[in-house]
């Protein structure tokens, strides 16, 4: 189990990457339209439905699905299970890019993008959103700091910019040296702070809707919503790692890392089981099971979320046969990832029912293009960074195949 | 990745301090409703649907001219909501009330920001751009707003509207309770001043409650025994009395508990003095130190060999 991350140096402009670039361009055009005509020009948001696809997917799901970053850091660096080291860097990269795009998504969504710094000056400690924003801001910086050693490893002692830029070589080299020393000494602080900040805002994202008891459907409105958000974020961390590792290793024809992914999902059996128990227990305590068969869009979406997104993959992961099969493991983990994504969309979009105007909402095309473009941008950058920085494990015998 | 022993004790000390603070943080949630709040009592039995209040609101607040004139009563044929161009609208309801010639009689309902005593929007607002003023107004400061629209999510009455078509400096638009007019010029809100039938009474909220109860008691059979806004979401500055059940007039049922209570209680009991993050940080440092070089003992038997 030698762990030697290295740059992939694979061909960059594959057909897949070209597709990503195309989707990014479409998203960028829609973003330009948003800044010319306003949010109303590109979205179907209304006074009754002020939050839609962008908050549900780009922000809430983006944060939840970046949970692989702090869960793997906890496992490998706080519990010192170094066996899992090979998935820590890719998960960290996903989290770093995930949060970066959460912030970009937020910039597009808020009406006054240029005013995003104002919560730093004008504090409202009563506001759940204020706490979420502060945590996301600090955590994003922590993620960048945690990523510094990867950059240092690649470029320290090897900075050689071409032509007139060569004058910058020495200062950059010095900067890398300082960064290396500081992050080396303080990395334990960043790692623990990352876990603490994650626990804080992952749960608080659930508290966001507690202020709207008349609007959020009772299947989701529960005082333990923050706890459900936290447990589901922790539970989706490793499945997200499996999901992306499988995609990346297939795409780049690398070792599928099954010897790491299989045991990793044994934790998921427990964590997802805990989430499932909380969710069903909550339904029992509050008696919301009475809604389950009423056939509304909300209820059906809840059933899909619970059955396909939690129960089915949980049962699948109980079976060693599934955990050892690459395909089985991927399907189970993709279901869990989809289940958490649907949960966030349900809480912020589907389950949100304005009681007076009863306004419906479906995202407009440019709205979808922006969300898709942001996800494509994330994948594009991921591909770019693993090509040039030591994130993934060196390809093994498959090279010649 | 080095955790020195001294650093560790420092953290544990901070943890202890954090724990000590938890006693205070458990304090019960308290309403921040101003005692001397002004308000308006709307008597729905008096309103004749003339829309003069809408017109006065538009003039006083410098809002854009509507497409249809304020004299045009056909706009009442459909239900409207306040939006980014009108802070208040009047809707007409036929709730089954009939006059002596068996004709259906309308009830008119003026809608605007309720100016809650413990406003959910102000609790939600990330920057505190929305605040409850001493005189009862829920006041919006566009200079702080970032446009997150969480206030619109939080408002139980679906009141705040947004300038969705302004690309860079959109504002949240809602009834201001004519804050400057009331606070600085000592005048009435535009709508209350113009109402030709005195359907809107402006005054101290406590006086208005007394007046409302007095009207209900003094005219047996005329009113429903309910002041909408007395207890709704912990009380609102705008209140209504009616001769028809409120649910037939577009009023929704809302909890009597102030909406910010649950979220604020959770937030403050968890994060006062940042005690829980500090404790968690301390605990994780302990775990990290304890597991250093020990975690991998079991690494070799991470079963499930593929």
Could you explain the architecture of this structure?
The complex is a heterodimer of chains A (401) and B (306). Residues 397-401 of chain A have low confidence and may be disordered. Chain A is built from 14 helices and no strands. Chain A is mainly α and 401 residues long. Chain B has 306 residues and is of the alpha+beta class. The two termini of chain B are 32 Å apart. Chain B has a three-stranded mixed β-sheet with strand order 8-1-9. Chain B has a two-stranded antiparallel ribbon with strand order 2-3. A two-stranded antiparallel ribbon of chain B has the order 4-5. Residues 18-25 and 299-306 of chain B have low confidence and may be disordered. Chain B contains nine helices and nine strands. The chains are: A mainly alpha (401), B alpha+beta (306). The interface between A and B is large, with 81 and 73 residues.
**Can you count the helices of chain A?**
14
Class of secondary structure makeup of chain A: mainly alpha
Query: What distance lies between the first and last C-alpha atoms of chain A, to the nearest angstrom?
Result: 22 Å
Share of residues in strands of chain B: 5-15%
What composes the largest sheet of chain B? 3 strands, mixed
Q: Which range does the strand content of chain A fall in?
A: under 5%
Radius of gyration of chain A equals 22 Å
Looking at the structure, what is the overall shape of chain B?
elongated
Oligomer: heterodimer
Can you give the helix content of chain B as a percent range? 25-40%
**Biggest interface: chains and residue counts?**
A-B, 81 and 73 residues
Strand tally of chain B is: 9
The topology string of helices and strands of chain B comes to HEHEEHEEHEEHHEHEHH
| Number of contiguous helices of chain B | 9
Q: Uncertain spans of chain A, ≥5 residues at pLDDT below 50?
A: 397-401
Question: What shape does the CA trace of chain A take?
Answer: globular
Count of distinct strands of chain A = 0
């Amino acid at each position: 189990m030698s762990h030697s991350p290295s740059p992939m140096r694979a061909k960059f402009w594959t057909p897949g990457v070209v597709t990503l670039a195309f989707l990014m361009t479409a998203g960028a055009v829609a973003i330009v339209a948003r800044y010319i005509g306003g949010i109303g020009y590109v979205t179907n948001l209304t006074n009754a439905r002020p939050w839609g696809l962008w908050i549900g997917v780009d922000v809430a799901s983006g944060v939840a699905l970046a949970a692989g970053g702090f869960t793997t850091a906890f496992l490998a660096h706080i519990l010192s299970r170094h066996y899992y080291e090979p998935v820590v860097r890719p998960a960290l990269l996903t989290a770093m890019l995930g949060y970066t795009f959460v912030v970009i998504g937020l910039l597009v969504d808020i009406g006054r993008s240029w005013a995003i710094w104002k919560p730093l000056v004008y504090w409202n400690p009563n506001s759940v959103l204020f706490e979420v924003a502060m945590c996301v801001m600090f955590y994003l910086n922590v993620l960048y700091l945690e990523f510094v050693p990867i950059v240092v490893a690649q470029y320290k002692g090897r900075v050689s910019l071409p032509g007139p830029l060569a004058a910058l070589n020495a200062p950059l080299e010095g900067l890398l040296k300082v960064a290396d020393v500081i992050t080396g000494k303080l990395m334990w602080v960043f790692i623990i702070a990352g876990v603490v900040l994650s626990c804080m805002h992952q749960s608080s994202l659930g508290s966001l809707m507690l202020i709207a008891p008349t609007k959020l459907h009772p299947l989701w409105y529960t005082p333990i919503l923050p706890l459900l958000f936290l447990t589901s974020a922790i539970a989706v961390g490793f499945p997200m790692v499996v999901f992306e590792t499988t995609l990346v290793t297939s795409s780049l024809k690398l070792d599928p890392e099954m010897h790491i992914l299989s045991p990793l999902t044994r934790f998921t059996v427990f964590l997802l089981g805990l989430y499932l128990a909380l969710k069903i227990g909550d339904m029992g305590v509050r008696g919301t099971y009475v809604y389950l068969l009423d056939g509304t869009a909300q209820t059906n979406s809840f059933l899909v979320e619970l059955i396909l997104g939690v129960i089915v993959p949980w049962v699948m992961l109980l079976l060693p046969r599934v955990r050892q099969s690459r395909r089985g493991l991927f399907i189970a983990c993709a279901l869990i990832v989809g289940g958490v994504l649907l949960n966030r969309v349900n809480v912020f979009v589907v389950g949100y029912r304005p009681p007076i105007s009863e306004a419906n909402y479906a995202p407009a095309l440019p709205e979808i293009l922006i969300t898709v473009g942001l996800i494509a941008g994330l994948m594009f950058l991921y591909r770019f960074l693993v090509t040039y920085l030591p994130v993934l494990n060196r390809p093994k015998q498959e090279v010649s195949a | 990745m080095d955790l020195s022993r001294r650093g560790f004790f420092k953290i544990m000390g901070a943890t202890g301090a954090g724990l000590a603070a938890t006693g205070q943080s458990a304090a019960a949630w308290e309403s921040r409703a101003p005692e001397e709040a002004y308000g308006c009592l709307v008597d729905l039995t008096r309103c004749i649907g003339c829309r003069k209040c809408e017109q006065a609101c538009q003039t006083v607040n410098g809002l854009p001219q509507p497409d249809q004139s304020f004299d045009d009563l056909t706009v009442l044929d459909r239900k409207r909501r306040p939006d980014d161009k009108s802070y208040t609208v009047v809707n007409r309801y036929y709730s089954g009330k009939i006059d002596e010639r068996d004709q259906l009689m309308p009830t008119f309902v003026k809608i605007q920001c309720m100016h809650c005593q413990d406003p959910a929007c102000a609790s939600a607002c990330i920057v505190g751009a929305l605040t409850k003023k001493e005189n009862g107004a829920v006041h919006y400061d566009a200079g702080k707003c970032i446009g997150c629209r969480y206030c619109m999510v939080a408002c139980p009455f679906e009141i705040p509207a947004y300038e969705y078509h302004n690309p860079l400096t959109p504002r949240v638009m809602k009834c201001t309770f004519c804050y400057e007019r009331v606070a600085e010029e000592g005048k009435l809100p535009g709508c209350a001043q113009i109402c030709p039938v005195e359907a809107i009474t402006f005054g101290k909220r406590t006086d208005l409650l007394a007046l409302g109860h007095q009207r209900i008691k003094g005219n047996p059979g005329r009113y429903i025994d309910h002041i909408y806004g007395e207890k709704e979401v912990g009380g609102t500055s705008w209140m209504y009395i009616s001769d028809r059940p409120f649910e037939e007039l577009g009023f929704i049922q809302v909890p009597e508990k102030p909406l910010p209570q649950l979220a604020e209680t959770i937030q403050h009991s968890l994060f006062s003095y940042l005690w829980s993050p500090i404790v968690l940080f301390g605990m994780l440092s302990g775990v990290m130190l304890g597991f250093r070089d020990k975690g991998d003992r079991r690494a070799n038997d991470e079963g499930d060999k593929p």
